[in-house]
Amino acid sequence: MTRLRLGAVLVGLLATAALLAPVLAPYSPTALLDLDTLRSAPPSLAHPLGTDLYSRDLLSRLLYGARVSLAIALLAVALSVGVGTATGLVAGYAGGLIDSVVMRVVDAGLAIPKVFVALVVLALWDEVTPGAIAVILGFTGWFGVARMVRAEAASVREREYVAAARVLGVPVRRLLARHVLPNVAGPVIVTATLGVGQVVLIEAGLSYLGVGVPQPMPSWGNIIADGQHVLLAAPWIAAGAGVAIVLTVLAFSVLGDGLREHLDPRSR
Amino acid sequence: MGAGTPAFIARRLAQGAVVVFVVTTLVFVLLQAAPGDPLTVVAERVAPDALDRLRRDFGLDRPIPEQYVRYLGNLARGDFGVSLTQHRPVLNALADAIPNTLLLAAAALLVDFTVGIGLGILQATRHPSRVDTTLSAVTITLYSMPVFWLGLIFLAALGRGLGWFPAGGATDSITYASLSTVGRALDRLHHLVLPALTLGLAAAGYTARHQRSAMLEVLSQDFVRTARAKGLRERVVLLRHALRNALLPTITLAGLALPVLLSGSVLVETVFSWPGMGRLAAESIGRRDYPMVTGAAILAAVMVVLGNILADLASRAADPRLRRTA
Amino acid sequence: MALLTVDHLRVSFTGPRGVARAVDDVSFAIAPGETLALVGESGCGKSVTALSLLRLLPEAARVGPDSRIVFDGADVLGLNREALRRVRGARMAMVFQEPMTSLNPVLSVGTQLAETVEAHEAVGRRAALARAAEMLALVGIADPVRVLRQYPHELSGGMRQRVMIGIALICGPRLLIADEPTTALDVTVQAQILDLLAGLKERLGMALLLITHNLGVAAGLADRVAVMYAGRIVESAPCRELFAAPAHPYTIGLLQAAPRLDGPARPTPAIPGAVPPATAWPTGCRFHPRCARAWSRCAADEPPLLLPAPGRVCRCWLVDDPTGGGG
């Protein structure tokens, strides 16, 4: 099976699981089922993936966690692509001072490690919601896209047919849409797909640190944080969530690779 | 390295300074944009008029442009503010922590390159084969792993589980003081292994993939065929001709990997209680010690900028074509 | 005794569009000190032939089981790795078409020359570099000591090709294979390089296999010329005779298509059609779809190499039947 197909299938399965979580989950993700007997219970028929420290069913938590993590990742990437593409187009096409200033900002943005940026913003935040996390991660991730789009826009600007088109009065919007976007669409799609995986990882990291998705809302990251306390006694808590993350990121990586092969046959 | 090197370094430093300046401005903007006031943390425990006084002391009642100028001025003087938790200058606290992060990052890069480049070369020379495909699956899984989860696995298995390595910290809190110099160095090394392995392996997956495709690309180039046509030993062809060229993009990659490495260090340092800048930043969050967090962010960016300049210098040294212009 | 004998060489590649029989039963021989030019358009298999002599073909290539290449008494196709390595560069050497991509960009000229010597002879670095400087002077580079320290990107195209020739000849091979040595160069530089090759040939007494699509280049250097088309040799003759009286319609077409300066300007007739893909050689005579003189026999049977005169071969039914089927 080609990578593209494999990736698409995996991502499809994940999306389905996430969307159908309310239907598939045997219990509520936040319900404390039995604080006396079901704390950190190993996998069993009633609880296929076991329960966590607070007697919550892990399978349900993982399924709902998929919803949260995937939703955040998709929203963040959409934001990154939108802002990055727009900025790149403007900077690349305008050239001159605007280009220089924007590119310095992009350089600076790429220089600060993403986790640190997120920490700076979250340091002052009172009530963090998944939406807020998505927005923060979206605004930390647009720099790479901007650079890519800007390069293409700048190279198009230099070409003769652009000067000709301008003389004829073709609006800039149309020029950009017809000549820059098609060339840049492929790499941007690939970057976006791979980016979903990366955002899942970052969000998991932030949730693990306790500054991401707030308890009791499940996120794979904070489930691992829970599991850390009983790591040797109840490894299934951290293990399950970890495997879920790996599979998700793997799925998007394979899909991204497949898209890259498909859109640019020259790459290996 | 070429006659124009001093000029090159000077230019890159100047560019770097501009980037750092923009970074500080970005951080300032972020602070202003975040909903919440730096003083909300203490707001409950402090009387209203004391709160006002604090506000005036921090200059938080001033108009934003004035705050910005004050902020820049402070930074220029090395004043990153006072930590709200450690009650000492942020710069001092970070200065204590940064060497540990640098040590971890260096060790991680060592692991990253050794494993990553090694795997990449192995895959390229065995391409196409089952070995190549299997290793590709391994590398893609490696870089799909959350680094903190990998750390927990190592911690559980090799640290607490088998007890081969310590379960955290940079030194043994009990015995370190009484050890000899060599003993101390070994103790530090012992503590360094798991965190460096974690951070390094997570990065190695990406490096291996990159190195593999660089190597495959180079192996198909004409000059490799010329090298064989000259009757050179295969080992010479691979190392002196193919690898030397295939390493060039990997050196560039090292520069780009720095931010990711530093992001990862926040998580790894937390898992292993490693006393570095990352753990400091993570801990400061919960207590809303925003001067510490912003100081850490700015210094992290400075490290990235310097690291990139070093990577560029390494590129120049390795590739004579880059030495043409200063 | 011949220095190089190639018998029934077949090289094929399997690809998405089928099996490409790039070289399909090629045989020739080169005597010591002789220059043979292998001429043909791109796609005829001449480069693949050249690469197979040193076993430099890509992984995907398959050499036919009946193929034999004997160089200086040794069965090249049967040599083990180490023996092959000792032949390459030292006894049989090759110069490639594109000097920029054929030289390692990160190593100095001196290193690339010296390492060849070090790989085959027991000399130290210093001695090897001294030999390198001598070689650079021999190939006509002024200020060899300075050039030793330079990198390929700092040299002009002509100089790079001289360096490549120097690398090939530094260990004194008996046979030099030059694959389109001047194609990537400016016209003025081409002449210089060809003169260089002619001079070196005389001085060093080596044999030369010259691969080219340019008949002028062949005419200037070759003792004998073999014309290739569609993976086979279609004509072979001593140089002067080939140009004076070409026998095969393809050769005639090539000669007519070459622009001439010794007469009034006239349009140069091109050979109609295009070289067929190696996955689908035409049945019968492979050239017949493009041949002005083809008749029914040509489409039906592929001609073997016939002998129009001593020392000449030609793969065309016209040798048997000059009337061309009575037409």
Fold and architecture overview:
With 268 residues, chain A is mostly helical. Chain A has a single domain, classed as MetI-like (MetI-like fold), CATH 1.10.3720. Helices cover 72% and strands 0% of the residues of chain A. Chain A has 11 helices and no strands. The model of chain A has no long low-confidence stretch (mean pLDDT 86). In chain B, 75% of the residues lie in helices and 0% in strands. Chain B is globular. Chain C folds into 2 domains: 4-91 and 173-269, P-loop containing nucleotide triphosphate hydrolases (Rossmann fold, 3-Layer(aba) Sandwich), CATH 3.40.50; 101-170, no CATH class. Helix content of chain C is 33%, strand content 23%. Chain C contains 12 helices and 13 strands. Chain C has helices at residues 46-53, 81-87, 99-102, 109-120, 125-138, 144-148, 157-169, 187-204, 215-221, 239-244, 249-257, 296-300, and strands at 4-15, 18-30, 35-39, 61-63, 68-71, 74-75, 92-95, 175-179, 207-212, 224-229, 232-238, 306-309, 312-314. In chain C, the strands form 2 sheets. An 8-stranded mixed beta sheet of chain C has the order 7-8-9-3-10-11-13-12, sandwiched between helices. The radius of gyration of chain C is 21 Å and the shape is globular. Chains A and B meet through helix 4, helix 5, helix 9, helix 10 and helix 11 of A and helix 1, helix 7, helix 8, helix 10 and helix 11 of B.
Give a quick rundown of the structure.
Chain A contains 11 helices and no strands. Chain A has 268 residues and is mainly alpha-helical.
Annotation, overall tally of beta strands of chain B: 0
Largest sheet of chain B: none
Question: What is the H/E string of chain C?
Answer: EEEHEEEHEHHHHHEHEHEEHHHEE
Would you tell me the overall average pLDDT of chain C?
Answer: 90
Class by SSE composition of chain B: mainly alpha
Please tell me what the overall shape of chain B is.
globular
Per DSSP E runs of 2 or more residues, the count of β-strands of chain C stands at: 13
Strand content of chain B: under 5%
Please give the share of residues in helix of chain B.
over 70%
In terms of DSSP E residues, the strand content of chain C is 15-25%
Low-confidence stretches of chain B are none
Specify the biggest β-sheet of chain C.
Answer: 8 strands, mixed
> What is the end-to-end distance of chain C?
44 Å
For CATH, the homologous superfamily of the largest domain in chain C is named as P-loop containing nucleotide triphosphate hydrolases
Q: Can you count the helices of chain B? A: 12
3D shape of chain C:
globular
Helix content of chain C: 25-40%
CATH architecture of the largest domain in chain C: 3-Layer(aba) Sandwich
